[in-house]
Design brief:
This protein folds into 2 domains: about 30-205, no CATH class; about 210-355, Rossmann fold. The chain is globular and about 60 Å long. It has about 375 residues and is of the alpha/beta class. The strands form 3 sheets. The chain has a 7-stranded parallel beta sheet, sandwiched between helices. A 4-stranded parallel beta sheet has the order 9-8-12-13. Strands 10-11 form a two-stranded antiparallel ribbon. About 35% of the residues lie in helices and about 10% in strands. It has helices at about 5-10, 15-25, 50-55, 65-70, 90-95, 100-105, 145, 165-170, 210-215, 230, 235-245, 275-280, 295-300, 330-340, 345-380, and strands spanning about 30-35, 75, 120, 135-140, 155-160, 180, 195-200, 225, 250, 260, 265, 285, 305-310. α8 (about 165-170) links the parallel β5 and β6.
Length: about 375
């Protein structure tokens, strides 16, 4: 399913072919697992429905199409002491982002809530993993002593932080007890890598998924601007006023922070009023703040926005044509004015971004993951004499 250029793929309709092929494949029973010290993704009981699970996230919307499209089950497990389950410590020891105790504090208390994640956690040894065909974990949540007891299960994992040492090491070989490594990559041109590496984004999403989860109309008229989080925290008042020319502006600024004691409660785009604004906005914009990988932008496109970004601050500018690339705020305003005066160009850009997200962040990685699962399952199948 690789393609040489975006133009080539758009012309031959590979998205439709990929979706049709995906519909013919048998699908594994999937579990998605995180440890109770993980400060991202969902914090809920395993029996919650997808809408409740999505709204429970501690930060990002994550690979929500695993649940909405593939019926995956979400599990929180107790943090295990096995070395292979200690990737999360690299955020403290190697990257020096926060003390290890800060991550462990999420076991007992999640900022802004009256509970910790241990309220929903089970010991990995107590889970019947045989009920699943494929288990995906974040930062390796299930140790080798458990995975070796379930050889019929295919084990896959993300390393969430791209700067963590285990991210690079996993490109060469999987962590002990694991079969597949999900790289988070979703570039149009595939990189050469080992067979155990699957280009599978952390934001495994397709357009309309959030509206389907919440039973919202997809075709509603859209207005206004949603400002990317890191940009919003640095934006100036005069920039806010300039954006208001294009409709309501939603921007989470530093003055909007809410604290739980001394701990800031993260803003979550999947909880109102953030989600209401994202699902109604016409544009998602980034012109400042720190450089980003593009997870928020993919989420915005999947929610129906047209994304505009500064390519110097965005690792996924391949999702854009020149019409939606803006170097700095002045050029951003020019691009927005051009879109407003030429609805046909805006619609072409909207369609292109949506098709790319549907292909690169859903159809292609889904086919690659299922293909790898089938390959490993076949090689492990006992020979019948």
């Amino acid at each position: 399913m690789a393609f040489d250029t975006l133009r080539d793929w758009l012309e031959v309709g590979r998205l439709e072919k990929a979706l049709a092929a995906l519909g013919r494949l048998s699908r594994p029973r999937i579990a998605f697992v995180k440890q109770d010290c993980n400060e991202d993704l969902y914090c809920c009981a395993p029996e919650c429905n997808v809408a409740t699970m999505l709204q429970s996230t501690l930060l990002r919307s994550g690979p929500i199409s695993l649940f909405a499209e593939f019926g995956a089950k979400f599990l929180i497990v107790a943090t295990d002491a096995a070395p292979e389950c200690s990737i999360w410590r690299e955020k403290s020891d190697a990257l020096n982002w926060a003390p290890a105790d800060w991550f462990l504090s999420f076991q007992k208390h999640v900022p802004g809530r009256d509970h910790g994640q241990s309220a929903f956690a089970r010991a990995v040894d107590d889970v019947d993993w045989s009920q699943f065909d494929l288990v995906i974990s974040v930062d390796v949540a299930v140790p080798a002593r458990v995975t070796k007891r379930f050889p019929q299960v295919v084990w896959a994992y993300y390393v969430r932080e791209l700067k963590a040492p285990s991210y690079a090491r996993s490109m060469a070989a999987p962590i002990i007890g694991q079969d597949l490594y999900l790289s988070q990559n979703f570039t149009p041109r595939r990189s050469a890598h080992a067979p155990h590496v699957i280009d599978f984004p952390y934001h495994f999403q397709r357009c309309g998924v959030f509206h389907r989860i919440h039973a919202l109309p997809w075709t509603a008229e859209r207005r206004g601007v949603f400002v990317e989080y890191h940009t919003a925290r640095e934006m100036r008042d005069e920039e806010l006023r300039a954006l208001e020319h294009f409709g309501p502006v939603f921007a989470r600024r530093v003055c909007d922070d809410v604290l739980d004691g001394s701990e800031r409660i993260p803003h979550r785009s999947m909880v109102d009023p953030d989600f209401k604004a994202l699902s109604a906005a016409k544009y998602h914009v980034k012109w400042g703040g720190r450089s980003t990988f593009g997870t928020a932008k993919v989420e915005a496109i999947a929610a129906g926005c047209v994304a505009l970004t500064d390519p110097a601050l965005d690792a996924t500018s391949f999702l854009h044509r020149r019409h939606s690339l803006a170097r700095g705020f002045s050029e951003l305003i020019q691009r927005l004015d051009a879109f407003e005066s030429a609805p046909s160009i805006l619609e072409r850009e909207r369609e292109r971004q949506r098709r790319l997200v549907d292909y690169l962040c859903f159809a292609r990685p889904a086919m690659d993951l299922i293909g790898a699962w089938q390959r490993i399952r076949t090689t492990r199948r006992p020979t019948i004499h």
